[in-house]
From TrEMBL:
Residue ranges occupied by any CBM21 domain in the UniProt entry: 11-123
Annotated PANTHER family: PROTEIN PHOSPHATASE 1 REGULATORY SUBUNIT (PTHR12307), PROTEIN PHOSPHATASE 1 REGULATORY SUBUNIT 3D (PTHR12307:SF4)
GO terms of molecular function: glycogen binding; protein phosphatase 1 binding
Annotated InterPro entries: CBM21_dom, CBM21_dom_sf, PP1_regulatory_subunit_3
Top-level taxon in the UniProt lineage: Eukaryota
The protein's name: PPR3D phosphatase
Source organism: Pomatostomus ruficeps (Chestnut-crowned babbler)
Gene Ontology terms: biological process: regulation of glycogen biosynthetic process
Coiled coil: none
CC terms in the record's Gene Ontology section: protein phosphatase type 1 complex
Length: 143
């Protein structure tokens, strides 16, 4: 999927849903990302619910507050939260799907960004590491 923050309707989706995934990146350890929420109240909880097996079982991680973005153009102040989803190494070799959605709880209400009902979905893949040509004949890789 395209990074949500790069979509032209990102601001309108945030206003409509109250919560919107901003960006996600992957590494060998898992997925990291940012979520924007409308600052409706001081007390709030942001989390990411995810699964590796088509929602037969699920996991949830709390996101942490990162920064506030001041109100502009008549839109409310926005808070940015960060999250990390650990991906077990054994799953990386199975081309497993990781599906997730962002959850925002505030003022007794619950709001979701689940990619318009499709969930955000990534496929775990491994990529062979290629040694730089200048290192191929170096002794350093034997140490």
């Amino acid at each position: 999927f395209q990074q949500p923050a790069d979509c032209p309707d990102f601001s309108s989706r945030l206003q409509e849903q109250q919560v919107c995934l901003e960006r996600v990146t992957s590494s060998d350890l898992g997925l990291s990302g940012t979520i924007q929420v409308r600052n409706v109240a001081f007390e709030k909880q942001v989390s990411v619910r995810y699964t590796f097996n088509q929602w037969e079982s699920l996991h949830e991680v709390c996101a942490r507050w990162h920064q506030s973005i001041p109100a502009k153009n008549g839109q409310d102040q926005v808070d940015v939260f960060t999250f990390f989803l650990p991906v077990p190494p054994f799953l990386l070799q199975l081309s497993t799907l990781v599906q997730f959605a962002a959850r925002y709880q505030v003022n007794g209400q619950e709001y979701w960004d689940n990619n318009r009902g499709k969930n955000y979905t990534l496929t775990c893949q491994t990529h062979p590491l290629k040694m730089p040509r200048e290192c191929e004949e170096s002794w350093i890789h034997f140490i």
